[in-house]
Amino acid sequence: MEDVLVPRGPMILGKPSKRPMALRPIVKYPELVLSTRSEAVSAIDAEIRRLVADMVETMHAAPGVGLAANQVGITRRVAVVDLSVGKDPSALVVLINPRVTSTQGHQVDEEGCLSLPGITEMVPRPLRAEVEATNLDGKTFQVRAEGLMARALLHEIDHLDGLLFLDRLSPLKRRLVRKKIQKLIRAGEWTGVGA
Ligand code: ZN
């Protein structure tokens, strides 16, 4: 996993009608925006479409299987998930104003986050989750997910509520991970901080 993204900047290639796209820098822990609860999207306008397109590109480039808007500094309730990391276009899920409608069971598995580069921990989550969200056409849809997909959806929705996977660890484990990160920050080895 690459930790540092080099923003390509707006690109206009080929036809003049082609929408400019851009990679957006990913915000790293402990920046405040990551612990901020995001606001609902009231209208799917050009700005939201642009944000989603940039988020998909940024997630694929990282590479990662999910990205929430506050990870690129925008506190709106928008997230993208793609377990195929761009290999299968049908695997991409764009979630606007997602909410968890039910959860079931229990799983503990390894989890990482693009805002916590190089840190993975065993994180407890529900095994299954049902999520309701709006797509880019403004239509409400439901996702019934299990295993890794449930984990990814719950991880991204946590981001929109200002939570990181660290918040799902035991207090002792969370303290240990925070100490480890503070050490990396002091050593200048925590990429992205202050950038
Ligand atoms: Zn994350």
Chart the SSEs and their pairings.
Blueprint (H helix, E strand, L loop, with lengths): L45 H16 L4 E3 L9 E4 L11 E12 L2 E5 L9 E5 L2 E7 L5 E7 H14 L10 H16 L9
Antiparallel strand pairs: 1-2, 2-3, 3-6, 4-5, 6-7
The protein binds zinc ion.
How would you characterize this protein structure?
It contains 3 helices and 7 strands. It has helices at 46-61, 147-160, 171-186, and strands at 66-68, 78-81, 93-104, 107-111, 121-125, 128-134, 140-146. The strands form 2 sheets. Strands 1-2-3-6-7 form a 5-stranded antiparallel sheet. The chain has a two-stranded antiparallel sheet with strand order 4-5. β6 and β7 (140-146) form a beta hairpin. The longest helix is centred in the N-terminal third of the chain and has 16 residues, at 46-61. The protein is globular, with a radius of gyration of 17 Å. The structure holds zinc ion. Residues 113-115, 155, 159 line the site of zinc ion.
Mean pLDDT: 90
Largest sheet: 5 strands, antiparallel
Run of helices and strands? HEEEEEEEHH
Q: Which overall shape is indicated by the principal axes computed on the Cα atoms?
A: globular
Q: Which class in CATH terms?
A: Alpha Beta
In spatial order, strands of the major sheet run 1-2-3-6-7
- The total number of structural domains is 1
Distinct compounds present: zinc ion
CATH architecture: Alpha-Beta Complex
Provide a quick synopsis of the model.
By secondary structure, the protein is an alpha+beta fold. The chain has 3 helices and 7 strands.
Characteristics:
195 residues; alpha+beta; two-stranded antiparallel sheet; 3 helices
